[in-house]
Design goal:
The structure is a single chain. The chain is of the alpha/beta class and 283 residues long. Helix content is 37%, strand content 26%. The protein is built from 10 helices and 14 strands. It has helices at residues 8-18, 32-42, 59-79, 83-96, 105-118, 139-144, 168-171, 199-210, 223-227, 232-239, and strands at 28-30, 50-52, 98-102, 124-127, 150-156, 164-165, 178-183, 186-193, 197-198, 211-222, 243-249, 255-257, 263-269, 278-281. The protein has an 8-stranded mixed sheet with strand order 4-3-2-5-10-13-11-14. Strand 7 (178-183) and strand 8 form a beta hairpin. Helix 2 (32-42) crosses helix 3 and helix 3 (59-79) runs antiparallel to helix 4 (83-96).
Length: 283
């Protein structure tokens, strides 16, 4: 007889393993240092909305919420807020500013459970597939999530390397679902639909769509996207009218996973003039 889990973390790990035959099963463990660094660089402000559209167990959301709670504590000292006002402000943040989407129903429940344990569990986490047409999202997701709505979109493109789609109806929804050709120093989107595309590529475009003008997008991406020439068109698309604020070299010890892909990260300000890009190495 198998041993029962002895700790909360072991229980969550068991639940995660139960989802192994379902979508979104690739578990990536991110160091707290990396999570905190990305959130600090993005620097969510009070009254800003934060979405993780592929939230897994909600690590980035919990760090963002903690960051906003610390903002409340800071302003409370400066402004002399009462304890009741502080608690009300934190409650409002939890109820109206933190959102997550996870396609795997078991992992979505794990994310909600961890929110309850670590905070109050009022954050809105929905089980849905963010890459589907908005018309195919569940009612609750449609009520809360829309394109151009969020001040901050932060996530890990942790799809499996071989996860791709050849669904023409789905590909037609994305500019990156079409073939791009280089013409001089620029890339032009053609009218030719790709035969297939990796989900993590479509995910990048979807995240950009979800961010409002002058909002920020922070993504952890497979390292192959940064260095492979076949993705030059992708970077041309990403950098059009957007400000690449930070690139992050994540080192060898900040992400562990069941398959050993390397990752990097970017932070972009949408529809903003390109300034100086800062590169950070996360030890």
């Amino acid at each position: 007889m198998e041993c029962l889990p002895k700790t909360i973390d072991e229980t969550f790990e068991l639940l995660y393993n139960m989802s192994g035959n379902m979508p979104s099963q690739k578990k990536i463990e991110i160091s707290k240092n990396l999570i905190n660094t990305i959130v600090e660089l993005i620097n969510p402000q009070l009254n800003e909305t934060v979405l993780d559209p592929f939230c897994k167990e909600g690590e980035l959301l919990r760090a963002s919420l903690q960051h906003l709670h610390e903002k409340v504590d800071h302003y409370s000292q400066k402004c002399g807020w009462s304890d009741v006002f502080i608690q009300d402000k934190k409650l409002m943040i939890e109820c109206t500013e933190i959102f997550g989407i996870e396609r795997n129903p078991i992992i979505a429940k794990v994310a909600k459970a961890k929110m309850i344990i670590n905070q109050n569990g009022r954050e809105k986490i929905y089980c849905d597939h963010i890459l589907n047409s908005r018309n195919h999202w569940k009612f609750d997701t449609i009520q809360e999530v829309n394109f151009g709505k969020f001040d901050i979109v932060i996530s890990i493109a942790s799809f499996l390397p071989n996860e791709e789609t050849n669904d023409e109806a789905l590909l037609q929804q994305y500019e990156l679902g079409y073939v791009w050709r280089k013409k001089g120093e620029v890339y032009i989107k053609t009218k030719k639909l790709k035969k297939k595309e990796k989900l993590q590529i479509l995910f990048i475009e979807q995240c950009l769509k979800l961010v409002k003008k002058h909002g920020k997008m922070g993504l952890i991406l497979p390292e192959v996207i940064f260095y492979t020439p076949q993705y030059n068109y992708l970077w041309y698309y990403i950098l059009q009218n957007n400000n690449l604020q930070y690139t992050l070299n994540l080192g060898k010890f900040n992400i562990s996973q069941r398959n050993r892909n390397q990752y990097g990260a970017i932070i972009i300000e949408k529809n903003s003039v390109q300034g100086e890009t800062q590169n950070h190495f996360i030890k």
